[in-house]
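Risk register update: the risk of archive-format incompatibility is retired. Evidence:
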Amino acid sequence: MVIRVQNEQREQESLSPFAALSSRTKGRQKPEEECSVRTAYQRDRDRIVHCKAFRRLKHKTQVFISPEGDHFRTRLTHTLEVSQIARTVARALRLNEDLTEAIALGHDLGHTPFGHAGEEALNEVFPLGFKHNEQSLRTVDLLEQGKGLNLTWEVRDGILHHTGPGIPASLEGQIVKIADRIAYINHDIDDALRAEIIKESDLPGDCLRVLGWVHRSRINTMVMDIIENSWDQPLIQMSREVREAMDGLRSYLFANVYIGSEAKREEEKAKGVIRQLYRYLTANPNCLPGERQMSANTEGPDRAVVDYIAGMTDRYALKVYQKLFLPFPWFQEV
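Archived output:
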């Protein structure tokens, strides 16, 4: 018996009746031979970890654009924190940890340079609009390796619905959706405190009394609350008290960190970079790299340029901007 079949049987014997079983996946867009060792969801996780889009996350903004300190979160460290929280919940609820991890690791692959500032800028200029979750799905379906990663339906569904009004079809996807919010609320508070944008005493006391007064306590409270309120249930949920406290912290961050704070002082410049890159490249698609030029011929320059810009890291976007718009010295004395 191949190892994969043994692992699939182990899932059937040990996981919750509500878990998504690897052996019952709805399949891939293109059929392919099964691995003799890894389950379908384990293969998806591995494909995501090894892809270029995943590696680029380390140089993409989470909240702070070009932070000076080494300890501020990037899009990659955010992704890892989401994965850790989601896996803890999935394991406790006896759900499929491999599926949960694959969705978590892939959920932000389509995120823009400069974080949500870049996303807002592309949404303004691209006629079809831009959402990073839809771009993440496009990345794994079409862009990565020039042909996509051919992931399972369940992973693709979780990536697409990790944000926005849609609800993931699997409980594993629902876990990632709420783990994403738990992660960014807590680590953005931590980063804002480190940057001295806010002070501990500024945080809303009514929320902290419910969730905890320190970083680890707040995460623990939220995770334990999900486990307690989702046990043997076909839905991932929080208690009303904890959910409202979490939403209160999120509202505080929007009012004091995400909008108009010192942390966001460079956002308009970053948006300007994205807008100018888009306008120039759509007018001059011959400046696109080869594979994106091919895409411009088949899908139009707007779509090709958005794919190119969304895949950029912060520093690569600035490098391209410098090349296109800033003069280079033609002579340097030695």
